């Protein structure tokens, strides 16, 4: 297994926590940087951060996604430089590539790649497309981490995690060669009885009620030292160290959560869009605000960025109570399988081997094949768009100028049309001639930060001994985790048991109930950037020791590696007014969707208020339809 430098153990208990063991680990910010604390973002310009050692991101794994864990240092600094206008006076010095494309797509996540595939399906044979992607590999948040633990290759999602059937985009799955009927999962290989495992990193955590092999952990904040695990909590709430009112709220929420009426009148939706989801939940479920902030807020923040106190009541209630009979699936690496299959469809040579689930998942990317001149669709990695602007008046222009940085140099090219498929937080800084209506719309989009920590384990006997495959907790670091069974086409072993190596994924939303929506996002980003890899590692180890040492967990022996994925703008947070507009203004998403601005269309998934891959694909199809009308 690849090992990085571990630094100096200088706190009491470091040895017991396993800091002096040989695992995958690397600190990312030095002491001088960390001294700036929460003022880091506001007090240091990107140029002051450049060159700081050791690396910002920590250990990043092996394989295609090594060096691409979350928003890396280079990507983060490049984005901040664009935001701060660092390239505005330098664009004139850009080297002209001489290239002219019919379509340039800014952003190589699922939205951008889907738009490229729709283009290839609809365009004339001589029409060309270029995708600019600022990371070292395509996929956006649908990327993976890879470990090798005791000879076994393990994969885990960096962000985007699972998909459901039926789906509004099933035809797209078929187009890219993803047959969900072929998904087979690891069978139980441990002692009887077989323990049911989730197919994703958090399905049991979000399932209401969760299965019997899921638990709640209560620690010092609940008067429990040592803490206690409550197994199968939904059926044993009377044993929870909670007040009678709180236990009643748990039971009431379980009953009412999935009874949210799907069909509401427009008048009722407009009313709900004027209040927070927290107030709407109090109306709908009759639970206390205290209960919502203890249990519902982290439950929802992991899926929607922030808790109900910051979200639109109409948008939120539209998203719950509609699960119905769905079948959940996950690639071994989360939804990383979707961008890999799209790229394999666009450029067959880009991933070695046949177009099968196993080959596309396990074979390496041929990076040299992505940007070949003979490709109708080219993908150019490590290329950050810094300026997109029409040549002349937008309504009369025939071309758009596109400037980007790559390997420290600035380049420019021309396009007959552009689709902005990156996030709205950066799009509003990249499109130079954006009109006031669109800028005002973008100002109504708010985003929150997220941390996804993948912890590779040599075994998970400590969980099985408790009768658990996963659990939730209500204090300390993170909120839940669980063992999952992975699709066999991507795993080295066809069976899983407590002796098997596995990866626990900790989804850690950064939210602060009670603060304004925008302020919560800013505060979360400050925390994400100003906390060192070593400090996050310490919190992970301490949390796991607190919860599992009584059942045999030993961080020195059991943890094989840790990778952090930091996402500064992981989720859009639809605040009250997002669905129908506010103060006489139209809904911000509709302003950007209604048609192209000149020769520029907008396709990022946050326009819908939901960061799911289905919406990414649908937004891409809409935007591509708009630009095809321009191309004729």
Describe this structure in words.
- The longest helix has 19 residues, at 613-631.
- The model is unreliable at 1-9 and 26-54 (pLDDT under 50).
- Helix 6 runs parallel beside helix 14 (337-346), helix 6 (110-122) crosses helix 23 (613-631) and helix 11 crosses helix 13.
- The chain starts with 13 loop residues before the first helix and ends with a helix.
- The relative contact order is 0.18.
- The chain is α/β, with parallel strands linked by helices and 632 residues long.
- It is built from 23 helices and 22 strands.
- A five-stranded parallel beta sheet has the order 11-3-2-15-22, covered by helices on one side. It has a four-stranded mixed beta sheet with strand order 1-14-13-12. Strands 9-8-17-18 form a four-stranded mixed beta sheet, with no helix packed on it.
- The chain is globular, with a radius of gyration of 24 Å.
- Strand 2, helix 6 (110-122) and strand 3 (129-132) form a beta-alpha-beta unit.
- It has three domains: 1-66 and 145-164 and 183-241 and 447-572, no CATH class; 89-138 and 370-445 and 586-631, FAD/NAD(P)-binding domain; 242-329, Orthogonal Bundle (Guanine Nucleotide Dissociation Inhibitor, domain 1).
Question: What are the SSEs and their pairings?
Answer:
Blueprint: H1 14-17, H2 31-34, H3 40-43, H4 46-49, H5 73-83, E1 95-101, E2 103-106, H6 110-122, E3 129-132, E4 144-149, E5 152-157, E6 163-165, H7 170-175, E7 187-188, H8 203-206, E8 214-218, E9 228-231, H9 244-256, H10 266-272, H11 277-285, H12 289-304, H13 313-319, E10 327-329, H14 337-346, H15 357-362, E11 377-380, E12 384-390, E13 400-406, E14 409-415, E15 418-420, H16 424-430, H17 436-442, E16 447-457, H18 461-465, E17 470-473, E18 480-482, E19 495-496, E20 502-509, H19 517-530, H20 533-548, H21 555-558, E21 559-572, H22 588-593, E22 600-602, H23 613-631
Parallel strand pairs: 1-14, 2-3, 2-15, 3-11, 7-19, 8-17, 15-22
Antiparallel strand pairs: 4-5, 6-10, 8-9, 12-13, 13-14, 16-20, 16-21, 17-18
């Amino acid at each position: 297994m690849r090992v990085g430098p571990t630094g100096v153990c200088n706190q009491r208990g470091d040895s017991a926590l396993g800091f002096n063991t040989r695992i995958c680990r690397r600190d990312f910010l030095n002491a001088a940087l960390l001294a700036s604390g929460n003022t880091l973002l506001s007090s240091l310009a990107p140029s002051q951060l450049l060159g700081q050692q050791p690396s910002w991101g920590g250990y990043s794994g092996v394989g295609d996604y090594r060096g691409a864990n979350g928003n890396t240092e280079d990507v983060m600094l490049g984005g901040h430089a664009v935001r701060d206008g660092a390239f505005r006076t330098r664009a004139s010095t850009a080297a002209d590539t001489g290239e002219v494309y019919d379509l340039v797509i800014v952003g190589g996540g699922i939205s951008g790649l889907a738009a490229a595939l729709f283009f290839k399906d609809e365009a004339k044979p001589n029409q060309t497309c270029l995708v600019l992607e600022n990371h070292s590999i395509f996929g956006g948040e649908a990327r993976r981490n890879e470990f090798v633990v005791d000879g076994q290759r393990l994969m885990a999602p960096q962000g985007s995690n699972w998909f459901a059937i039926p789906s509004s985009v099933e035809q797209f799955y078929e187009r890219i060669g993803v047959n969900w009927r072929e998904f087979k999962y690891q069978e139980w290989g441990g002692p009887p009885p077989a323990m049911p495992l989730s197919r994703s990193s958090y399905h049991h955590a979000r399932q209401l009620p969760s299965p019997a092999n899921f638990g709640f952990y209560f620690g010092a904040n609940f008067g429990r030292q040592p803490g206690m695990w409550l197994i199968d909590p939904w059926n044993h709430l009377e044993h929870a160290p909670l007040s009678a009112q709180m236990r009643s709220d748990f039971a009431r929420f379980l009953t009412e959560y999935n009874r949210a009426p799907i069909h509401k009148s427009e008048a009722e939706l407009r009313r709900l869009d004027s209040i927070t989801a927290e107030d709407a939940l109090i109306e709908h479920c009759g639970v206390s605000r205290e209960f919502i902030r203890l249990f519902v807020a982290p439950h929802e923040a992991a899926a929607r960025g922030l808790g109900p106190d910051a979200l639109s009541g109409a948008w939120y209630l539209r998203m719950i109570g509609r699960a119905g009979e769905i079948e959940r699936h996950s690639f071994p690496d989360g939804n990383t399988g979707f961008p890999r299959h799209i790229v394999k469809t666009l450029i067959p040579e880009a991933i070695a081997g046949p177009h099968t689930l196993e080959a596309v998942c396990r074979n390496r990317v041929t990076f040299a094949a992505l940007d070949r001149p003979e490709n109708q669709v080219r993908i150019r990695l490590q290329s950050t768009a810094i300026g997109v602007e029409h040549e002349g008046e937008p309504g009369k222009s025939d071309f758009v100028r596109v400037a980007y940085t790559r390997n420290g140099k600035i380049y420019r090219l021309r396009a007959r049309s552009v689709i902005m498929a990156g996030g709205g937080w950066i799009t509003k800084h990249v499109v130079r001639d954006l009109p006031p209506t669109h800028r005002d719309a973008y100002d109504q989009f708010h985003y929150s930060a997220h941390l996804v920590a993948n912890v590779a384990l040599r075994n998970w006997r400590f969980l099985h001994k408790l009768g658990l495959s996963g659990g939730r907790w209500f204090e300390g670091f993170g909120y839940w985790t669980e063992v999952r069974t992975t699709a066999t086409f991507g795993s080295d072993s066809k069976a899983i048991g407590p002796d098997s190596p596995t990866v626990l994924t900790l989804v850690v939303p950064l939210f602060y109930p009670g603060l304004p929506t925008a302020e919560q996002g800013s505060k979360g980003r400050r925390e994400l950037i100003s906390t060192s890899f070593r400090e996050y590692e310490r919190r992970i180890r301490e949390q796991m020791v607190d919860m599992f040492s009584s059942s045999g967990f030993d961080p020195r022996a059991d943890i094989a590696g840790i990778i952090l994925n930091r996402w500064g703008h992981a989720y859009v947070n639809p605040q009250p007014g997002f669905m129908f507009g506010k103060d006489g203004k139209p809904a911000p998403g509709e302003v950007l969707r209604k048609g192209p601005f000149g020769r520029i269309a907008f396709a990022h998934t946050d326009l819908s208020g939901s960061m799911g891959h289905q919406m990414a694909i649908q937004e891409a199809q809409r935007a591509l339809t708009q630009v095809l009308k321009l191309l004729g």
